[in-house]
Amino acid sequence: MGQREQWGSRFGFIMAAVGSAVGLGNIWRFPYMAADNGGGIFFLCYLFALLTAGIPIMILEFGIGHKYRGGAPLTFARINRKWEWLGWWQILVCFFIAVYYVVVIAWAISFTGFSITQAWGDAPKDFFFGNYLQLTGGPFELGGINTQILLPLALAWVIAFISIYTGVKSGIERVAKVLIPILFFMVVIIAIRGVTLPGAAAGLNFLFEPDFSRLTDFKVWTAAYGQIFFDLSIAFAIMITYSSYLPKNSDVVGNAFTTCLTNCSFSLLAGMAVFSILGHMALTQGVPVSEVAGAGVGLAFITFPAAISTLGSAAPIFGVLFFLALTFAGITSLISINEAAISAIMDKFDLGRKKATVLYTGTAAVCSLLFATGAGLYILDIVDHFVNNFGIVFGGLLEVLLIGWMFNLKSIKDHVNPISDFKIGNWWIFSIKIVTPLVAGYTGIMTLIADLQ
Ligand code: PHE
């Protein structure tokens, strides 16, 4: 096998890693998770999860990817031959995410176009479910493939395909270096407009004011930990894969901190943008923010379009900005989810990048058609729930348990410390060995119990 590919620069790597982390999860999922889970208290739990699981696991994944230089299965196999399957498990989870994630990107592409004329009119809910998704009665009633989704879906796949096909440095890195700065810029503009609108304060209060009575609610904690895993793309094989392309002397710990903090600041920014505009809408309609905020999946595609329509003549601009931001954020994440699998296939079967990319994205693209049917949203809900509550938490839990307890963690600390500016200490070992397994295990089990009831 030839030499492993490498990133062209540190900035390029950070953009790609941030590109993976910043995704639909930050703009679409974070606000509705916060809304459903006690607003500010969710945010506090989320920050706690970031410190106790997010950052430590990111350092772990960057560390092992860099040290063992393989996609996730190969990296786990090099740590211990018996653990290769854990890498494949994470890749499987990636596959399930990719096939629905891409469809949400397709929606965002369509809505970028719809924003120009505000095609949703006065009834965004009927528009989204009826005119656009053409929802059938349930998950088993597929209906036909929705031709309105087909074109944007193809576009999303083509962009992801080309980026991966052309390689780590000339494809993935280059795309991230262009899209991510533009993305930040767009969201800053939306946030500035948002916070200067009348009613914004009520929206922001809703996002930040902690309802302390929910501090003991395990659902809030599960949601916060689940969000951290999903949000940072950890326990998905991705960050291991990306860091395996780092040059020998790389500031692994610094990169992990930068990636996590950039991602979470972005979530905060996106949350502020979304909630200030929702606050404005609530004021316009004379209802409390809580009434417009808790819309689950529909937040981005039903509530937000309605909110955009309250912006008057600026509505088309902010609509396009918002949905384009969603598209850019999604595309760079989609690239990473696929790259994790493709890299593993290349390692395992000694295939070239081009062949592996054609095979894998071709298969995934065909499977994603299932979500472009009239039953797509129902199936998406089920898969999202399964993947997020079990796939990730258990994938992550096993990872920290195996590496934390069956392996010499100190060797990873000793690997990253000499090359990093910021040194990790025993707090890191404590987080990986004790805190993360306890919290992830507890929340995983509680969710399982709640599901069984
Ligand atoms: N982190 C991405 C987001 O926030 C989602 C993602 C999940 C990306 C899994 C890759 C893998 O949207």
Automatic annotation (TrEMBL):
CDD domains: SLC6sbd_u1 (cd10334). It is a multi-pass membrane protein. Keywords: Membrane, Symport, Transmembrane, Transmembrane helix, Transport. The keyword Transport applies. The keyword Lyase does not apply. Belongs to the sodium:neurotransmitter symporter (SNF) (TC 2.A.22) family. This is Transporter.
